[in-house]
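Holo prediction. Input below; ligand is protoporphyrin IX containing FE.
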Amino acid sequence: MTDTPVDSSPLAYPFERPSALEPCPHYKRLRETNPVADITMPSGSDALLVTDYDSVRTVLSDARFSRAATARPGAPRIGTEPQNAKNLLSMDPPEHTRVRRLVSREFTARRVEALRPRIQILTDELLDAMEQQGSPTDIVPALAFPLPVTVICELLGVPLGEREQIAEWSGTVLSTVSLPVEKIVEAHVGLSTYLGGLIAAKREQPGDDLLSALVSINEADAERLDEEELLHLAITLLIAGHETTTNQIANGVLALLTNPDQFEAVLSYPGALPTAVEELLRFVPPGDEATLRITTEDVKLGDTLVPAGTAVLASLASANRDSGHFTRPDTLDVSRTGDAQHLTFGIGIHYCLGAGLARLELEIVIGSLLRRFPTLRLAVPADQIPRSSGRLIHGVTSLPVAW
Ligand code: HEM
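Structure of the complex:
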């Protein structure tokens, strides 16, 4: 299948990382020697893992790599949990085009920008509470977790009282390899039942929130979202809308605290914050891999011929460290310019719908945190920072800081 040297037996995926900040060393080796490698996924299915920038771009943006094929009965899977074809992320065109257009009509850049003052207020409140509690504080529960979950719940019109329960379901759904399949299915049922009830309530009494807007699309005559599409959209937005951002905040702060010159640079030039946020997204993304795709025909990836029907995973985190596209890729440089665009939000038709919201949250949270606590430092040695494992999305689970 390939004319590049290959590992003799498939590597077991996902890889464990040596520490919270270091990427798994397999990626560098694979990029250099075997950028389209055989792996075995936790479900036992075989797949190819793609690690170089150009091939990752191709897998994410070339229509011959299908998402819909991953939701068909008997398709290879990452974990054991079933995929749902009515999920935006599991659709190919033309279904994807229709649903994405409908949700983009409501989830606009304007709606996101309108959240700026509210996100600033919520952040300031959390920082006030941190200050009152005093140094040291764990900023995962104090800031990185509550901010994104509050923002996505307010945006969708989900009552805040449900926040802890939603976070628990969401964490279970994303666990992939660390929990039994029954637990994951149970969490899916919990989320679906809850959101189904909320959708019914919004239909009765619409609010000024995104979920009510999506419900009204569901009721319109032309080009409507069907009932299942609406439910899965709500689930995807709720899950995608907080877990990734929580981890990105924690990873980003940890990266700055362990690179004090970069911390100083962000503090000294607040205008450069958007560039710094992009670099943190490149350097410490909240997950290694984009979702699974399956080839619908034979495709050449570099020197490798990938036959039709092959399961392929594209590593975003690895692509972001490709020295062919980034100068000194293993160095955090918050003033980095002129390199390729990082792939942390994906690329192509499934490009992250919430990228604008995530960027806004990161900018406000990181900027406000550094301004409020310019002497911020780690309260424990960096190698003692715990991180989650057995999950597709990962970040540090606790980040004690002092000031
Ligand atoms: C740092 C935070 C985030 C990261 C790193 C991230 C990353 C990603 C990536 C890589 C994809 C594409 C997956 C693929 O092509 O296989 C994606 C898709 C998606 N993301 Fe995000 N995301 C983040 C935050 C958010 C937020 C805040 C929301 C919602 C409010 C969101 C909603 C979505 C949705 C709905 C999709 C599916 C889009 C489609 O299939 O057309 N994400 N995200």
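The two ends are 55 Å apart (CA to CA). That is the main takeaway for now.
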